[in-house]
Specification:
This protein has 75 residues and is α+β, with helices and mostly antiparallel strands. The protein has a single domain, classed as 2-Layer Sandwich (GMP Synthetase, Chain A, domain 3). Helix content is 45%, strand content 28%. It contains 2 helices and 3 strands. A 3-stranded mixed beta sheet has the order 1-2-3. A hairpin with a 2-residue loop joins strand 1 and strand 2. The protein is globular and about 30 Å long. The N and C termini lie far apart (28 Å).
Length: 75
């Protein structure tokens, strides 16, 4: 069985190309007790659309792809 962190990394790999196409990226900071902490970097960091990217893109994908997640937080 894959561990939670590995599952999250695989899911992030699916969304990463879209972020990189816009000059940004995402890094996994921590996975603890079903809570994933990620950081948007590059052009995504200060983008006015970053909150929507987090909720509608990253969080939605992670919650669908990784069973057992409770929450996704941007740090």
């Amino acid at each position: 069985m894959k561990d939670l962190k590995e599952s999250v990394e695989q899911a992030l790999a699916k969304i990463r190309p879209m972020l990189q196409r816009d000059g940004g990226d995402i890094e996994l900071v921590e996975v603890s007790d079903g809570i994933v902490k990620v950081r948007l970097t590059g052009a995504c960091k200060g983008c006015p659309m970053s909150q929507m990217t987090m909720k509608q893109g990253v969080e939605k994908l992670l919650m669908q792809e990784v069973p057992g997640l409770k929450q996704v937080q941007a740090v």
